[in-house]
Structure formats: structure tokens, C-alpha cells
Amino acid sequence: MLLIVMTNMGNIPTILNIVSFLHGTMHMGVADASTTATNFFGALCVFSFLGAFISDSYIKRFYTILIFAPGYMLLACQAHFPSLHPPPCDITNHPNECTPATSRNLSLLRLGLYVIAVGEGALRVCAAALGGDQFDGDDPEELRGKISFFNWFAFCISLGGFVGLVFVVWVQNNEGWDLGFALAALMVLVGAAVLLGGLPFYRHQVPTGSPLTRILQVFVAAFRKRNLSLPEDLMEMPNISDGTGKGVEVLDRTASFKFLDKAAVDDGDTRRWSRCTVTQVEEAKIILRMVPVFLSSVLGYVPIPLLLTFTVQQGGAMDTRLGAATVPPASLFIVPVVFQMLILAAYDRAAVPWLRRATGHAGGVTHLQRVGVGFASTVAALAVAAAVEGYRRRKSTAMSVLWLAPQFFLLGVVDVTSFVGLLEFFSGEASAGMKSIGGAVFFCILGAASWLGSVLIRVVNRATARRGGGGGHHGWLDGADLDAGRLDLFYWLLALFGLVSFFLYLLCACRYSYRHNPRMQSGMEDDKVSPAMTKEEAAV
Questions:
Q1: What is the predicted pLDDT for the residue at 302?
Q2: What pTM value is reported for the model?
Q3: Cα 407-333-181 angle, rounded to 5 deg
């Protein structure tokens, strides 16, 4: 957990404040800075799949975490040496006097960002899976701890973000971005050193070979045998091992996606990838069952990174004085981070035991119900943000940054519900040989949503500029500052998009059947969780 705290002391401030570096130091416009920031966040999430693939297939998760080094020093060098960034200027008040970054400087910038994305993407998904490996699902007490683990995993992310947003952001804005990036690198290295010290005490999973190869083999075998008839008694199909799935959890056959069952039928074909075990077939079925939830969750998450990015820029256009102190816009995220920590602690220690008794679910509510609450909160946050931005544009004097508190609170609710719920869902539904991949699927949702958000920014800008939106030839998000665009209208558009995505998610979630029954066994004590769920699938 200390690793999570230390790394996020550097990661979260960089993710949330990078748009200020891009705009103020690299002289990017509002739209370009926001697009680059969301692309960086998207790459960080998608590259988690690389680390998950390596840890599940070839080496232990512990070593996967250690072999990736952070790339903050590249950005520290760029911020430190004058030849690697444009000369300083007042981009807020005199944007026309600012020199844009050269192509060479932009190339170094992108290299530094993507080196960070590769390293931190692998670290975050493997750290979550490594933590889950420390709990024995067959022990009732340890299973209760495993249910709480992801809540406290998110709590440590928030705690690291809280410290970083207070300390690292202050360093970035007052002592220089070079020192801020170097400090972020140091924190990641200290966290890795602490993790290394615990090596003798960890439980380690055994790599099972490439899970993607096992799943692909199922589709190849099923296609080759597409004209075969299934046995009358499908339960008689053998669940043998051919050596490709050593150490993989043995899964029983389910009735869904029967066309894949043909992959386990012995038709005498001796070619490679012509025969699969039932466990391999069931792993492929697990992936197919999660696809609708994955796609609808990507759409539901699209507005969230955009709201995070533009909220920082909203704060920069407001009066950030709180008494005698001036608060950097990125440090305003302390508000939702504090809400996250308080809500997570209250939810895990007070709400879950009560909900467990009321609903009979081991976790109080199902994972997908928890995610649905988060997506509904996203729509509410966007509506509030649109109203606040519209009011800011109409006022002749600068508004206090405290007007952003309601949308910050709702963003905190989103992280407590959707973030933790989806991470639990994909990690819990994945088989034992695919735990890191399951976590990576969740982070791919965040990454894909960020990239789709970048596309949405470009589409909206072009469409509104062509129609003369935002007054004149500018699009809603064009210009050097927010007053030159119409961020309030863009927020309303995102709210509508989020509402449609929410109902689509509800449709997919209600049709999903869990691999394990989320309800507790009858006769259990209210404060305990069953060590073994039934094999029956339970609908949301």
C-alpha cells in the first residue's frame, strides 16, 4: 500500500496539472493542451495492458513492477534547459507574444509522456493484482479482507494524491516544473524500494502462459469445428490439460455461447490449436460476457477525463484566493480527494456491513450497481459544471473558485463508486490466470474513454466553428482562454452524452450474469462473507 501512496504522490499531481505545464510552459492552446493531457492519461491506462500481459504470461507481478522505470526525468530536463522549451511569456494576458514550441521540443515532450505512460501503466495494474494475491479466497477472514482491499487500494491512491496535490503542485508552480518532475521521479523510486524490501513476505502467483493465446486458440478451434455437432451430453466433455494452461484455475462448463463448446470436442484433428480444454473455453466465455459492460463503460467514462481537465482550466479563470493564500488550480482537486477518502472509509466500515444485512450481497451491493451510481453522478457533475461556467461567463468580476466545490464533490462520488466498482468487477470476474488482464481491462476503459474524449473535442470544435458557434469563427473550445469559447455549452453536450451512455450501461448491466453468485450463502452471520460462492450465475 505504501507503494501506491508514494507513486500517486507524483502521478496524480502530474496527471491533473500537466495541462498547466502544456499551456503555460509549452505554449499550447486550450484545445491542444487538453487533447495532449487526455491522450497522456489514455496512454497511461492502455499501456497497463502491456504490464498485465507480461505478468500473467511470463514473470511474476512483483518483478513486472520493478522492471519499469519512471520517465519523469525526461520532462524534468525539458523543463530545466531553456533550449528544450519556448521562452517564458504571459500567455494569459498576451498570448500573441508567445512563441510556440518547436517540433523537436514537442517530440521530446511526447517521448517523456509516453515513457511515463508505459512504466506507470504497468505499475498500477500489477500493484492491484499483487495486492489481491495476498488474500486466500478459501479463508473466510481473508476473503472479507479481499472484499475491502479494493476500497483501501483506492483510499491509498487518494491519500497519495492528497499529499501530492498539496506539496508537489506547490513545488511545480512555485519552485519550477523541473524540480516538480524530479520530485515525482524520486517518489516513484522510493516506493519501488519499499516494495523490494517486502519481497520475502509476498505471496506470488505462478505465470500461466499467455492468457490471450489461450483465448485466441478457442476461437480458432471453434471456427475449424463450426460444422461439427455438439455431444448430446455436454457435461461429458473432458476438462484435460494439454500443458498450455499449467496453474490455471479449473472452470466448470456453463450454458452460454454454446458455439464455443465445439472447441473442446475431440474430432481427431491433430493440428495445433485444434483442441482446447473446457477451462480454456470458459475463459473465452468470460471475456465475451464482459464485452457489453466494457463498451458501455467506455462511453460512460468519456466525459470524466474531460471534466477533470477543463475543471483545472476553469479554476485558472477564477479567483483562487482563499483568505491570504492563493491556491494553484490543480490543488483544487484536494477537495474531491478528501471527499473520496472520507466516503471510502465510511462506506467500507459503516455502509457495507449495513448493506450486507439489507441486501444479502457480500459487498453490500453488486459491483455493477455501484458503477451505475457513479455514472449517474457524472451526469449530475456535468450539469452543475455547465451551470457554474455559464454563470462565470455572465459575471463581470472574477468568481471565487469555491463555486467549483459542488462539481468537485460529485467527482469524488464518481471515483468512489465507478472507479472501485469497475476495478472490482473486472478483477473478480476474471479467472485466476487472468487477474492482471482483468485489471488492465478496467484501465483500458479509462484510456479508451480519454482518447474518445480527444476525438470529441476535435469534432465539436470543427462542427461549431463551421456553424459560427461560440461567436464568430471560433469553435466552442478554440482560443487561448475559456472566455474565447463556450465551455458551458460543451458541458451541456457532455451531460446529454453521459445521460444516454448511462441508460445504455443500465441495459448491459441488467443483462449481465455474474460468474459467482454475489449473494451470501444462507445461514451466514451478517458480518461474514462466504468463503465459496455457488456456481450458479446470478443476474444483476
A1: 93
A2: 0.75
A3: 150
